[in-house]
Amino acid sequence: MSDRIRIVLADDQSLFLEGLRTLLSLDESLEIVGDCANGQEALEACRRLKPSIVLMDLNMPIMDGVAATKAIKQELPEVNVLTLTTFDDDERVFEALKAGASGYLLKDTPSKQLVDAIRTVSAGESFLQPSIASKVLAEFSRMSAPAATEKKAVKLLEPLSVREEEVLVWLSRGCSNKEIAGHLSLAEGTVKNHVSNVLGKLGVLDRTQAALMARDLGLI
């Protein structure tokens, strides 16, 4: 299948890596093109194999997941990174998102949610579980706090419409385009267009940055 999602796996725990490969291989829409035991190998695999997505463990030797994510996104911005971690309070989650990761999953995430997340991130969307979206935004707010005293009014390239503001609010809560469509009774394609317009008007590159702008605009 030419439209299969090409995946590189990166984790230094061989048993977990083997189990992940076996699990994902059951889905014909996915293709495991390589696996790695550290971040340096992941970077080299991305250079060689040009995958759609990397499932990146955060805790690895030689080069950890955060450093590898940063290197991959700087050199190969078209490659999407979905980070894996054992604990949802791992501080490196926020570092990975700052480095360019499109989202994160706990290692004990059910297989269906894992596949859904892979498809979402491969399509260029972010995957933030709603239960932790507010925690992510709060952490980014804390990290940017030193600049708060000089904070100026946000100036948009072009004002958002009422509908675009609604889309931005749901996006900031970690919802996918499909979920936003359900909340607003819109077609998923329409939501996708609204999201593209929102990113353009905000002058940001991804949904995480858009969510931070939503906070600055007072929408969340």
UniProtKB/TrEMBL annotation:
Xref: InterPro entries: CheY-like_superfamily, NreC/VraR/RcsB-like_REC, Sig_transdc_resp-reg_C-effctor, Sig_transdc_resp-reg_receiver, Tscrpt_reg_LuxR_C, WalR-like
Key words of the record: DNA-binding, Phosphoprotein, Transcription, Transcription regulation
Any one of the GO BP annotations: regulation of DNA-templated transcription
Positions of the Response regulatory domain: 6-122
SMART domains on file: HTH_LUXR, REC
Keyword Transcription regulation recorded: yes
4-aspartylphosphate: residues bearing it: D57
GO molecular function: DNA binding
Thylakoid keyword on record: no
Every HTH luxR-type domain range: 153-218
PANTHER family: TRANSCRIPTIONAL REGULATORY PROTEIN NARL-RELATED (PTHR43214:SF24), TWO-COMPONENT RESPONSE REGULATOR (PTHR43214)
Name of the protein in question: Response regulator transcription factor
Record lineage: Bacteria, Pseudomonadati, Verrucomicrobiota, Opitutia, Puniceicoccales
